[in-house]
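Attaching the record inline, Q. Sequence:
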Amino acid sequence: MSKIRRTMMLSSAVTMSQLQQSMDTISNNMANINRTGYQRREDSFSDLLFQQTDHQRVSQPEGNRLTPEGIRVGNGAGISQTALRYDQGAVQETERALDFALAEAGVFFPVQTEDGQAFTRDGAFYLSETVPGADTWQLVTREGDVLTNGDGEPFVVPGQASDFTLDPDGTLVADLMEGGSATLGELEVATIERPQLLEAMGNNLFQLPDLAALDVDEADVLGFDVAGADQVTQGALEQSNVDMAMEMTNLMEMQRSYGMHARNITQQDEMMGLVNSLR
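Structure, as predicted:
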């Protein structure tokens, strides 16, 4: 029986480490509840390997038995997957011309980073000078990543631009201070058919893995569409899709389970100490 107790202690210890990782995930969600376009993460658990411990040397003829003979002892539970949940977040009006809220789940703004193409749901963009003294600008995220179209081309904004308008057909137009307007191009959004393939890069950015290594055709995963009025709202931002009440409930469940396994280790240790004192 001491072997079984040690196995049960090991099972609880392994499960506690996995519960701690899940609590870290929940804490990260709660810390980013006010981050624009943040996509919450959710852990899934699965049982680890179980082993059969037989307590009878000779099998008994129990034809009507519905449970395995002996004791099944497992090695605990582990996190099988940490998945991004692409639920639509609430849309908050800002009345700022360069704020764009995505109104459809599963679509992203394509941006160019130092590491290549990436995707984000944070639609707050700013003007950044392309070359000092060139009097031309480009649209960038708050981290400086450049907003592009589906072909990877940035939007070139003239220095005289004073305001911006997104037409219902997805055309982005800049109003000039001297009068008139300049067409910057069509604002496009990226549609990811298999969003669970996306890898988090930090700063609300995601990238696709090496699709060739996965034997996946890029055309089957990634597509670009002109941002229509039903997909993008100007003058607004999408908030995070984190539900504080749900996260608090999940955190309490993880903490209670953690405490239960901690008590199990303590009780098994006390029982082993009692057995050893009787010898």
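Residues 91-238 form one domain. The first helix runs from residue 2 to 31.

More tomorrow.
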